[in-house]
Amino acid sequence: MTTTKARVVYSPVFTDGAEFRIPTFKLLKQDGSLYKGAKAPDLDKDKALRIYRAMVTTRILDERMLAAQRQGRLSFYMQCTGEEAAVVGSAAALDDADMIMAQYREQGALAYRGFTIDEFMNQLFGNELDYGKGRQMPVHYGSSKLNYMTISSPLATQIPQATGYAYGQKLAGDGHCTITYFGEGAASEGDFHAALNMAAVHRVPVIFLCRNNGYAISTPAAEQFAADGVAPRAYGYKMDVIRVDGNDILAVHEATRAARTLAVEHNRPVLIETMTYRLAAHSSSDDPSGYRSKDEEAVWREKDPILRMRLWLESKKWWSEDDEKQLQENMRREVLETMKRAQKRPPPALDTLVSDVYDEVPPALAEQFDSLKSHIRRHPDAYPKSAEHAKGGL
Amino acid sequence: MTQMNMLQAINNALDTAMAANERVLCFGEDVGVFGGVFRATSNLQQKYGKARCFNTPLVEQGIIGFANGLAAQGSVPVAEIQFADYIFPAFDQIVNESAKFRYRSGNLFNVGGLTIRAPYGGGIAGGLYHSQSPEAYFAHTPGLKVVVPRNPHQAKGLLLAAIHDQNPTLFFEPKRLYRASVGEVPDEDYRLPLGEAEVLKEGTDITVLGWGAQMEVIEHAVEMAEKEGVSCEVIDLRTILPWDVETVANSVFKTGRLVVTHEAPLTGGFAGEIAATIQERCFLYLESPIARVTGMDTPFPLVLEKEHLPNHLKVYEAIRSSVEF
What we know:
Chain A: Residues 52-349 form the Dehydrogenase E1 component domain. Chain A: It comes from Marinobacter vulgaris. The structure holds 2 protein chains of 2 kinds. By secondary structure, chain A is of the alpha/beta class. Chain A folds into 2 domains: 24-343, Rossmann fold (3-Layer(aba) Sandwich), CATH 3.40.50; 350-390, no CATH class. Helix content of chain A is 42%, strand content 9%. In chain A, the strands form 2 sheets. Chain A has a 6-stranded parallel beta sheet with strand order 1-7-8-4-3-2, with helices on both faces. In chain A, strands 5-6 form a two-stranded antiparallel sheet. In chain A, strand 7 (240-245), helix 8 and strand 8 (270-275) form a beta-alpha-beta unit. In chain A, helix 1 crosses helix 3. Chain A is globular, with a radius of gyration of 23 Å. Chain B is 36% helix and 20% strand. Chain B starts with a strand and ends with a helix. At the A-B interface, helix 5, helix 6 and helix 12 of A face helix 3, helix 4 and helix 5 of B.
C-alpha cells in the first residue's frame, strides 16, 4: 500500500530530484539595506536591540574565552563566530517559553534568553555555582528557567528528543513548540532521519534548524552529502522546508516566525536550513588552516552577520557609533570581571560526584563514596580542591 | 485476584498506569490497534485513544530518542522495543542520553518517567536475533535501572514500580514465559520494590541465584538437588541494576556457596559482577568457588539451542560440584 497515488509509466523512469532546487530566502544586504522588493519583518526597536546585544555578547564572550583557553585558564572552548544571526535570529522569533534543544554552538540563543555572563562563566569554569555541578565540559550549557535543554556531546541525539518533547507539548495543548539546532554534519546521523520522519508522521510542533556552515570539523559539506544541502531531504518526509541566508538576521527571524506559526497553529513540523559559515575553528582543539584556505575565510568574513545587522540598525537610527562603543566597552569589562570572579570560586562539593546519577544514591554507590572520602582523608594533599571543599563531608 | 498469564499481567499493568495518569503513553512498533506482536498492548489504543497508544515508524533509535524527549517534558512514556535483540540501535540514546540526563544537567532536567519494555531471552527457537539477553550491556551504565520479572504477579508489580520510578528503567520480559507462566494477579495497583532481591526458598547448604525465566530452571535443578539432601536457598535477583548486594551476601554468609545462572554468555555476563562482589564480601565464608552457569560464548544458535542454554541439568551439576568441592 502506498500513501500517494503514483503515476504509472511503462518503461523505467529514474529521477534524481534535480528539478527540486530550493531557493535561498534573503531580506538584508550586507550594506544594511533591504533587497529590492523585500519587506522588513515586524521587528520593533526594543526587540531588534535585544537581538543585536545578544549577538554582540556572544561574539565578545567567544573571543575572550577562546583567548582564556589559549592562556590555559580553561580546558576547552567552542565559538559561534559567523553564525550568530542564524542562532539568535531564530531564537528571537520564538516565544521565550518554547523549548530550545541545541547542539553546542548555540550560546547566542541562551544569551538572547537572558543567560547572564555569570551563568556562562560558572559553567565554563565548572565552579560550585554551575547548574551542571561541574560535570560536563565547557560550553555544555543548560537552563531550566530559560527552557534551554542541557547540551550533550553526542551529535544529533537531541533531534528525536525534540520531536518527543514537542509531542508532549502538543498533547498538553499549551501552545508551545520546540526548536532543535544541529549542524549539517550532525544531519548525517541516523537520529536526524528518525526525528524528522517521526515528526512528520505524528504531526509534531517542532522546528528543525540546521546550521549549514560548510564544515563538520575538517569535513567539507561536499564530503558530507551529495545532494543540494540538507533542505531537500524534507521532501522525502513530506515536511515544510525553507532555506535561508543564515547571515541575514531579518530573513532568519522572518522564516522562523512563519515556521513557528505552521508548527504551533497547524501541527506542521518545519525544517529550516540556514546557510552560513563557521568563521572560527571547530573548537579550541582544532586548527582549520590544515583543511581550508584563508581566502575562503576572507570571503565570509566580509559577510559578517553582526556588522550587517548593525548597518541596518544605524539606517533606522536605532543605533550609533557611540552606542556601539559603549556596548563593546561594557561587555568586555563585564566578561573580564566575571571571568575572574568565576575562576576564583570553589569547585562543586565532593558529594556532587555521586548525586543525580539516580534520584537517590543507591547503597553500593554510597559505599564507593565512603571509601573515596576515607582515601582523600589519608591523602589530602593529592586532592587539594576536593579536600578543601568537602565542607565536613570528609 | 484474577488468573492471568504474563502478557495479560503486563497488559493489565499498562492499563492500570494509563487509567491512573493521563500522561502515561505507550508506543513502539505495532503496539497500536494491533496491540503488539505479543499482544502486550491489546486494547489500549481502543481504550485511551491514538494519541496515547500508537505505532511509531520502524526506528529504534527514534523510539527511544522520542521517549527521552517526552520524559524530559514531563510525560511518562512506556516505549516498547519489539525484541531486546533490536535494542542496540537505541544503545546510544539509552546509554549516553537516558542514563546521563539527570547527572549531566545537575538535575535541571531528567527522564525519570521513562520505561523501556522489551521481550528478551531464548527457548523459543528464536535463533540469533529473537533470543538475546542483553542485560549485562546495560548493567555497565550508571543511571539506568534494569528489571526482570519471573511470573505474572512479578510482572505487574515490577512494571508498575518501573513506570512510577523516577529513573529511566529497562524492563526485560522473559518471552518464553509470556503465555507459559500463569498465576494469580491482584486487580488493583500494587508495586514491588526495585533494587530488592527476593528469597524464594530458604536453605542452608548453597545459594542459587538467577532472574527472569531462569528461575524456573533453578526450581527444577533445586528439586533434584534437594532430593539428594542438599538444602538450597533460592534467590530471584529481580533488579539487575542497582542490584541487591546485601540480600545475596547475607545468604552466602549463611550457606558458604553460590551458583549464579543466566542465559546470556559467560564472558562479561552479569554473573561475573556478582561473583566478584560476593568474593570480596564473603571471602572468609566461601567454601567453594562461586560457580557461573550461563550460555556459551557464542551467538545464540538456532538448532542447538538446547545444548547452548544453561538448563536445569547444568545448574544441578554446578550445585553438586559446589557441595562436593
